[in-house]
Each structure stands twice: as structure tokens, then as C-alpha cells.
Amino acid sequence: MWHTVGVPESEGLVYEALARRRQAAINDLRDDVALSPARLRAALGHLVDRGLASRLPGHPARYEATSPDQVATVLIAEQERDLLRLRRHADELAKEIRQREEPGRHPAELVEVIEGAGNLRATLIRLQREARVQIRGMDRPPYLDNPAKGNTEETQQLADRALTYRVIYDRSALAIPGRMAEIWRGIQSGERARVASNVPMKMLLCDDRFALIPVMAAGQLTDAAYLVHPSSLLHAVIGLFEALWERAVAINRSVGGAHDGRPSTEELPEQLADRDIELLGLLAGGATDERIARTLGWSVRTVHRHVHRIMAMVGAETRFQAGMEAVRRGWV
Predict the structure, then answer these.
(1) CA-wise closest residue to 290 among 304, 302, 300
(2) Which of 49, 165, 292, 304 could cross-link to 191 by cystine, CB 3.0-4.6 Å?
(3) From the first residue on, what is the mean pLDDT of each consecutive set of 10 residues in the chain (332 residues)?
(4) How many CA atoms, within 13 angstroms, populate the side-chain half-sphere of residue 325?
């Protein structure tokens, strides 16, 4: 077990024997560990050097084990720092190699296949960290992970670098429990979000340099994705996103007098609660009453009551008009 944090198996056995006794001399440990006195002495010396044990004063030499929970915390932290350094080094090396290869890439290398859930997550993080101007995304079910968790890397990049994020959500994504709340958290951090019907695929664009497109098979999401390098295919994918973005409905709430880059025309009425803002965003996205009920945890009857109240507030004759009027006024 201890070898996972860089402690050799023999030293791990000696440490556990010492920890169970709390204090012991070498002769005491010979009954617990099948090692020669010389190897026991060497193992204890290594444990002392690493802070897993300490030598007590007096003769014969006695040793005391450091508390296991303290040892685990320190060793795991060291391992995490080493892994992070390795990740950064590997990312820089890969970046250097890509920059050298880019001008003369063979056509067969313009679309790279990324396999494995771990590699996919690492690539998603790397692309967001390498982006210089913006990240664009298309989001739709199904998901490999719980979609209510959100994109923690996006939150970090928005806070640290003010990187622009533009995301188009499929209407079906809004019906997933907890998903709408997570989308609002992204919006509050600075994400620009829109919703559309029948978003054709999941995708992440890193500037105009890379596109990551998850692979679908038989209607199911796999743990593989296509990484598209600069090419005519990448230009086509960028064009698809921009065309869909123009037709999609903005769901951003007005912040500081601005709405998705456009001036807000009206202040939010005092009688408009936070849940009403979510409801308006769903209405603007064309969600059904049943989908709104599932998303907000309401009954369909409660949805009808709130929708009719808001329709009366804005003078709309239909629920869709109410959503569009809210968008026009800069409420969502």
C-alpha cells in the first residue's frame, strides 16, 4: 500500500510494525518483520530521514513512529505536487512538439483520437488553459460525469484570466435536475450562454486552433473524442458554432446594466424573484411546462400559475412571448 506514495514495500512493513508498537527497538521489530538486523536498521534509517519515524535518545536505539494519518497527509501532498509538476512538464513538452509539427502536419494527423476518460479530462483542462482569447462550447446530453458538477476549470479561468466563454446549451440539458442551477453559476461568473433546439453535438473550441468533439456510438457517449487541428474541417466546425450562436436564444441575466454584450433596457422588477429568472430563461429557451416543472422541482400546476403571473406582468399573450419579452427587456 505504501509504495503508492514512494515508500518501498519493506520500509512500509517496518513502519506499520513500529506504528502498532508506537515505540520499539530493532530486536522488538524482528518478531514482527522477517528482515535481518542490518536491513531493519537501514529501513528505520530511511523512515527517520523521510519523517515517518524518529530516533529516541539512549541505548540501545529505540524508534517512535509518526502518526499514520499525519504521514499519509504529508506523503499524499508530496505526491500530488510531483504529479502536478509532471503534468505541467508534459503539457509544455506536448505544446512544444505541436508547435514544431504544426506547419508540416500530414493530413492524416489533422484529426487526433483521444481515448480514455482520464485523457479526455486532461485534454479538456489543457485546452482551456492554453486558450488565449475564448472558449466556445456546445453542450447536450448524454454526459459521462454528473452534469450538475459543472466545469470547475471554467470557473477558475474566468476568475484568473477573464477568459471569454460562450456556450450553447441544448434545451434537453435544461431539464436535467441541478443543471440549470449550474448554468446560472457559470453565467454569474461571466459565461455567455444561449439555448437552442437540437444542438447537433457536444464540442469545445479552443480559440480558432483546436476543436474537441466527443465520439458518439449508437446514441451513447464514449470515452473517446476527436481533437481537430487547424484545417478546413476546423473552419467548418467554427462556422457551425457561429451560425447556431446567432440563432440561439440568450439566457444571460443582466449584470451591471449589460446583457450578453448588449445594453439592458429595464431594471428587474422588485416582484421578480430569482426562481422567476430561471423560469424566464427556460421559457425563452422554449422548454415545456413539464420540463420546467422537473427542472425547478415544481408541480405543473405551480408552473402554470407562475407563467400566467409573468405573462400578465409583461402583457404577453403566450408563454413564448413572455420569454422573448423578458429577453428584450434584459431580464434574462
Answers:
(1) 300
(2) 165
(3) 76 83 81 82 85 84 85 82 85 74 64 90 91 94 75 82 90 76 82 88 94 86 90 93 89 43 51 76 77 88 90 80 70 66
(4) 14
Under 8 Å between Cβ of 18 and 65: yes
Q: Are 128 and 163 in contact (CB under 8 A)?
A: yes
Residues 151, 137: Cα–Cα separation, whole Å: 12
CA distance 53 to 18: 9
Spatial separation of the C-alpha atoms in residues 147 and 178, rounded to whole Å = 8
Task: Please report which helix (H) or strand (E) contains residue 211, including its range.
Answer: strand 210-217
* Cα 133 from Cα 68, distance rounded (Å): 46
Place of cell 483520437: 113
SS3 158: helix
C-alpha cell at 320: 413564448
Instruction: Show the DSSP H helices in the chain as ranges.
Output: 9-21, 26-29, 37-50, 68-101, 117-130, 152-161, 171-174, 179-189, 232-247, 274-284, 289-296, 300-314, 319-328
Sign of CA pseudo-dihedral 255, 258, 259, 261: negative
Sign of CA dihedral 109, 111, 112, 115: negative
C-alpha cell at 10: 519493506
In whole angstroms, give the CA distance from residue 243 to residue 200: 12
